[in-house]
Amino acid sequence: MMQVPQVPLDEEFRFRCQAFTRWSDEDLQGVLNNAIYATLCEEARYRYFEQLQLLEADRHFPFVLLQSNVRFLAPGKGAT
Q1: How many CB atoms lie within 10 A of CB 32?
Q2: Could you write out the DSSP letters of every residue in 18-45?
Q3: Degrees to nearest 5, angle at CA 24 with 21 and 29
Q4: How many whole angstroms from its chain centre is CA 58?
Q5: pTM, two decimal places
Q6: Disulfide engineering: 78 pairs with which of 19, 23, 26, 43, CB 3.0-4.6 Å?
Q7: How far apart are CA 17 and CA 45, in angstroms?
Q8: Residue 31 β-bridge partners
Q9: How far apart are the first and last CA of the chain?
Q10: Does 77 score more than 90 pLDDT?
Q11: What is the CA radius of gyration of the chain?
Q12: What pLDDT shows up at residue 80?
């Protein structure tokens, strides 16, 4: 049987940011659409690189993200 991954403690992360969802990101049960996770991660990645001053003057990334993976541990709930 597959083991559920352990979620790290908050203090183990180098960076945290608050992300907001929209009503359209959820289904009728209030569960986030799976594609929204990638959008939220992208927003957090942008803010992290902005904090590290890795963005160029025109606010573009000087590199490309090749791959991302998401492991869903539980249904995500939005703010509503």
Answers
A1: 18
A2: -----GGGB-TTSBBPHHHHHHHHHHHH
A3: 90
A4: 23
A5: 0.75
A6: 26
A7: 10
A8: 77
A9: 34
A10: no
A11: 15
A12: 56
Q: Is 15 helix (H, G, I), strand (E, B) or coil?
A: coil
pLDDT of residue 63: 78
Cα Dmax for the chain: 49
C-alpha of 11 from chain center: 17
Q: Are 75 and 30 in contact (CB under 8 A)?
A: no
**What are 15-70's pLDDT values in tens digits?**
999 988 888 999 888 899 988 999 999 999 989 988 988 888 887 777 788 898 88
- Structure tokens of 37? 């996770």
Q: List C-alpha distances in Å: 40 to 1, 3, 78.
A: 30, 26, 12
CA dihedral (21, 17, 10, 64) positive or negative? positive
Judged against a pLDDT cut of 90, whether residue 75 lies above it is answered with: no
Q: How far apart are CA 21 and CA 55, in angstroms?
A: 25
